[in-house]
Specification:
Length: 174
Amino acid sequence: MSDTPDKGLAGILAALAEFHAGLDEPYKMTPAGMWACSKSEEVYELLGQLDLGIYRRFADLGSGDGRAVLIASLFLPATGIEADPGLVEASQDMAQGLGLERVEFLCADCRQVDLAPYDLLFVYPDKPLDWLVKMLPDNWRGHLLVYGPYFQPAGLTHLKTIYAGQTMCTLWER
Ligand SMILES: C[S@@+](CC[C@H](N)C(=O)[O-])C[C@H]1O[C@@H](n2cnc3c(N)ncnc32)[C@H](O)[C@@H]1O
């Protein structure tokens, strides 16, 4: 792991830039939905506005190219769950190349994964979040961080709104 998060971020940005240089477009349809990228610098800024010391494990539900997971792993253990095998492979390759050890990527439908081990969930939703609200364990004590203003989780309690750059993000609990 890099000695400081800022230094670690620089390596992650470089790895993402290299991956994206080989793509025609930075978005595509996947087996489960639509891949579009959050802004890495905003994710870093967003996480920096949270008290990350209170969380044990981060998970990105629909992790795309793995950017939020790679960035979160600079602060705490982090898991990416993504339905697209090519994106999972690219994420794993970047994590390995960067020597990031607190990272794992699962190629799976996140609607089928037990979310109990994760207490900081991140989602940049490509669809409404009803499925997620329904599958959170009743006794789940974690927080859900939603990137972007388009889909909000009805039925959860809003804790705060955080701006990362121009992007409105929200934090929720059960
Ligand atoms: C808008 S992109 C966000 C990507 C990434 N989280 C980021 O911040 O750049 C949504 C991602 O969720 C994935 N996805 C959607 N539904 C999914 C599901 N049920 N299981 C796993 N991945 C899913 C899509 O394949 C896509 O890569």
